[in-house]
């Protein structure tokens, strides 16, 4: 089944924020939080040592098996094969809108259930 073609309307709030958020003294439209400095995250010698010993590399684009297995425990009857974990909203949007099978979709964004039913 081919995915339905759709024309997406620009999201005006997002447009305004992305065009202006880095050019203001006080950002009253911010919906998130300012990121921390690495120093603020590593407030103990143990955490600093863990970071320094961490090996960098590429991970599975659908999420590691242990991560997907851990997530699947929240959804009775699901397994790691039913779960796709993404890195941020842009990747999630791409995966969502490029789907070929639209029979059943479940989304969980930042632990807030958005859709958990078959699409009709």
UniProtKB/TrEMBL annotation:
Q: Which Gene3D superfamilies match?
A: Aspartate Aminotransferase, domain 1, Type I PLP-dependent aspartate aminotransferase-like (Major domain)
From the Swiss-Prot or TrEMBL record, give the protein name.
Answer: Aminotransferase class I/classII domain-containing protein
Which species expresses this protein natively? Answer: marine sediment metagenome
């Amino acid at each position: 089944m081919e995915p339905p073609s759709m024309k997406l309307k620009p999201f005006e709030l997002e447009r305004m924020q992305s065009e202006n958020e880095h050019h203001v003294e006080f950002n009253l439209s911010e919906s998130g939080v300012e990121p921390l400095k690495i120093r603020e995250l590593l407030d103990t010698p143990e955490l600093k040592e863990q970071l320094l010993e961490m090996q960098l590399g590429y991970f599975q684009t659908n999420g590691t098996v242990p991560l997907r297995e851990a997530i699947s425990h929240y959804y009775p009857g699901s397994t790691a094969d039913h779960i796709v974990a993404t890195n941020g909203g842009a990747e999630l949007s791409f995966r969502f809108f490029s789907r070929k099978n639209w029979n059943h979709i479940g989304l969980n964004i930042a632990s807030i259930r958005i859709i958990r039913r078959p699409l009709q």
